[in-house]
Amino acid sequence: MLELTVFLSGALVMVLEMVGARVLAPHVGTSAVVWTSLIGVVLACLALGAWAGGRRADKKLSRAGLGQALAGAGAGCGLTAFCHTAVGAGVTSAIGNLYLAAVAAAAGIFAVPAFFFGMITPYVIRLRIARVDTSGATVGRLYALSTAGSILGTFLGGFVLISFFSSTIILWGAAICMLLLSLGNAPGRPLLRLLLLALCVLLAWQNTLYRQWLARNGRGVMLESPYNNIRISEGLDPAEGNRRVRLMATDPGYSQSGMYLDAPDELYFEYTRFYALGPYFVPGAQSVLMLGGGGYSVPKWLLAGRARPHAPGGPGGRDLRLTVVELDPAMTAAARRWFGLRQDSRLTVLHEDARAFLNRQNSRYDLVFVDVFNSHYSVPFQMATLEAAQALRRAVAPGGALLMNLIAAVEGEDGRLFRGIYQALAAAFPDVRVFCVGRPERPAEVQNLMLVAFAEKRPESGREVAPDGESPPVPPQLAAMLRARHLRPVARDIAPLTDDLAPVERYALMLLRP
User: Fold this and answer.
1) Cβ-contact 273, 366 below 8 angstroms
2) With CB atoms 3.0 to 4.6 Å apart as the test, which of 117, 179, 261, 274 could cross-link to 74 if both were Cys?
3) How far apart are alpha carbons 321 and 365 in whole angstroms?
4) Reported pTM
5) Degrees (nearest 5) of the Cα angle 122, 126, 130?
6) Angle at 413 between CA 410 and CA 415, to 5 degrees
7) b/e map of 292-314 (b: 16 or more CB within 10 Å)?
8) For residue range 68-105, what is the model confidence (pLDDT) as tens digits?
9) What are the residues facing 222 on neighbouring strands?
């Protein structure tokens, strides 16, 4: 029983840590800062628990003492499952700095269970040691079992549990398992632990029913995948006469995709409408690559032919070939269920990392849309480097263009992320232009930026002159977008980012000042 205890507790502490990132994601995102905070806090609490467990074992060694440590770990997991949302929201609302908020949230949510998990192994070792001359073998065997359990818990949590169960249910499951281990090791005086066990089972069942009720009544849906914590909600857009809107969010305080319920193929966010510059600059485009699907707003817009008013003969007809590369299959599933994405023979969806796709593919596309930089909290640095820009250049056909959405400023300290990416694109493309989506008159302000890179040097208008020397009139909405172009030279104080030196996440997190 002692060997089984260290094996299972080693597995469950890693399940707790793997799930921890999902628990923290709605409050502080999923960046390296969050993982660093979570790992550091859990290790500190494990160390403190190991110290306390060893001292307790020397003073009062009994199976009942081990049962109490196991019950403490179970009760801690249950407490985490019950109040992690309230603690995370309270900490992040009180602390504006992401680094401090991530550490404080991790400590507030996971300190108690991690402390009790740390007590278990030294207590078990003290119980198991019978003779000093075999103590080394005993300690080695128990630590090997604990480590083997941690390996199992890492793969079980990361590959299986997170894919099929919500974080809260996994935490309730860990609490139930630890309470059962406590009863197995110390069956005497079980009443309080049995009550805790029954309470955990009841609350886990209630949580499942509550989530199902929310989904049925349109009160908000939360989906968890190996890559994202996806939240879907509905609201009203007062700027459009209180039209009903459905939103998808993966970041704290931000929405990544939106859809008007009365017009699913209409673009909701202002920055997505700037993708109309692509068909305008490349009016004959028929092959389109989209890196980053999200709620599939732009793919739906293209498939519905809504790009054609901006470029007669542009994408949207029967000859359209649209390839979408989306890392998270859960995003695509959510888009099909809640955001009106339908099956279409012109659409190909690939679930893989955008950079990995670019590295292996050989096709060329008239238009390449990039929408992977839609978060400050988890920036895919591998898509911001010079090598990524060169791979993107290989994917753009002659006469084609690349359009990339980015959240940053153009000038000042908040523009370092943009300037690093801009320099990488400028080294790979002969002509790169910048359009400020929010406030073109304030380039030092953080906003959505649309970068347009051409496969060849273009006239100042960005369009090739028609054979008759005349160009068709520009639609009013596009004219406003064209006026949002940033015309001042981009500062070269930031070198092009490279794969082996890419402080992308640091630049992005600098934008998260309170």
Assistant:
1) no
2) 179
3) 9
4) 0.79
5) 150
6) 25
7) bbbbbbbbbbbbbebbbebbeeb
8) 999 999 999 999 999 999 999 999 889 988 889 999 99
9) 231
Asked if residue 481 lies in contact with residue 273, where contact means CB atoms within 8 angstroms, the answer is yes
Measured CA to CA, the distance from residue 66 to residue 54 in angstroms comes to 11
Q: How many CB atoms lie within 10 A of CB 498?
A: 14
Q: What b/e sequence results for 117-148 when a residue is b if at least 16 CB atoms lie within 10 Å of its CB, and e otherwise?
A: bbbbbbbbbbbeeeeeeeeeeeeeebeebbee
Structure tokens belonging to residue 343: 């099956």
Q: Rounded CA gap, 347 and 361, in Å? A: 17
Tokens 């003290």 appear where?
126
CB 387, CB 498: distance < 8 Å: yes
Residues 373, 270: Cα–Cα separation, whole Å? 16
Query: Would you tell me how many other CB atoms lie within 10 Å of the CB of residue 79?
Result: 16
DSSP assignment of 378-392 equals S--GGGSSHHHHHHH
Residue with tokens 């092959």: 287
Mean pLDDT calculated for residue range 258-270: 93
Rounded Cα–Cα distance for residues 243 and 235 (Å): 8
Say how many CA atoms lie within 13 Å of 420 toward its Cβ.
Answer: 25
Could you give the angle at the alpha carbon of 511 between the alpha carbons of 507 and 513, nearest 5°? 130
Report d(CA 99, CA 87) in Å as an integer. Answer: 16
Amino acid identity for residue 474 in this structure: V
How, if at all, do strands 396-408 and 365-373 pair? parallel
Q: Can you read off the two tokens belonging to residue 395?
A: 């994917």
Amino acid at 190: P
pLDDT tens for each residue of 350-381 = 999 999 999 999 999 999 999 998 666 667 77
| C-beta separation of 207 from 113 below 8 A | no
Contact 504, 417 (CB under 8 A): yes
